[in-house]
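Internal tracking record. Fields below are filled automatically when a chain is submitted to the structure queue. Please do not edit lines marked as system-generated. If the sequence contains nonstandard residues, flag them in the REMARKS field before resubmitting.
Queue: standard
Priority: normal
Entity type: single polypeptide chain
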Amino acid sequence: MLYREPHTLLDELAEATLDGTRKERREFLGSVPLLIIDDLGMRKLPLTAAEELLEIIMRRYERASTLLTSNRPVEDWGKLLGDSAAVSAMLDRLLHHGHLLKCGPRSWRTKLDAPASS
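SYSTEM-GENERATED OUTPUT FOLLOWS
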């Protein structure tokens, strides 16, 4: 399992490009059994984010599990990442054998931390 926030994941890919280990990093990201990308849309991402995330999802498609969380509606991801075509292709692969869970506007953290009622 690998847990990353999107900006960290994309920074690691950029660093791998600079140090010549991008191919190995892509292979690792394509093969880890479960990749959790948490909080998409919470921080500004580079202009290449949609393409980079699509590449990762394509490598994992029908080979490994991917969990992606976001507080932003899926409908906004094209605008958020600046490339509607890449986001559409990414969502097509994520949702083909996947499940979309909507947890509602209330935070799970605050729900779990709330005192028990008597």
